[in-house]
Write a structure and sequence with these properties.
By secondary structure, the protein is of the alpha/beta class. The chain has helices spanning about 5-10, 15-25, 30-50, 55-75, 90-100, 125-140, 165-170; strands at about 85, 105-110, 150-155, 180-185, 185-190.
């Protein structure tokens, strides 16, 4: 026996749905009023799950997450900028290449900037170099205490001798990233 037509219009269910529900539960000895209540509960639960959550309840957590990421990257970037060696400053070059002056060790990444006025963007700094710098600086407790000063340099710069930095110190530009150590440890050595 199936549900009466009044039950179908009361619940505003499709007749085929009511017929399927009625025939399935009728075999188990469940009467029509119980089936009607079960169908109404099922319809009520379905309508609740289909509603999307209100935007205002999602907005506060989303703003919190964004602020946390911004704060993290801001704190990570503090005092972690890689300086660039001025290739036109002869004293700075002598200190980097031969350890004169303060006598520090240097880890240099050959990193050429595009010409001024060019629409080209500079290549990103090697993640290997950046990670090594971050690890050594944080382990030493600051960039002043690290075993080497990390810096970027335009190794394609032509020196007064007519040779580029790459040529003078026999650095292989095909080996990427082109990194060398120098200073107190001796003349530049590519790693």
């Amino acid at each position: 026996r199936y549900l009466e037509p009044t039950a179908v219009t009361t619940l505003s269910l499709e007749p085929q749905v009511v017929k399927n529900i009625s025939s399935r539960y009728h075999k188990q000895g469940i009467n029509t009023s119980q089936i009607t209540k079960m169908a109404a509960a099922k319809k009520k639960n379905k309508s609740k799950t289909e509603k999307p959550p209100p935007i205002d309840k999602l907005l506060k957590p989303a703003i919190g997450i964004v602020l946390a990421f911004v704060g993290y990257y801001f704190m990570k970037g503090i005092d972690m900028d890689i300086s660039r060696i001025d290739v036109n400053d002869e004293l700075a070059l002598r200190e980097v290449f031969f350890g004169e002056g303060a006598g520090k060790n240097h880890a240099i990444l050959c990193h050429t900037l595009p010409p001024e006025g060019s629409s080209k963007k500079p290549l990103p700094v090697s993640s290997v170099f950046q990670d090594a710098m971050d690890e050594l600086v944080s382990a030493a407790g600051g960039s002043d205490k690290a075993i080497a000063q990390f810096a970027l340099m335009n190794c394609e710069h032509t020196l007064p001798s007519g040779k580029t930095i790459l040529e003078k110190f026999k650095l292989n530009p095909k080996k990427r990233p082109t990194i060398f150590v120098s200073g107190k440890v001796g003349a530049p050595k590519q790693i």
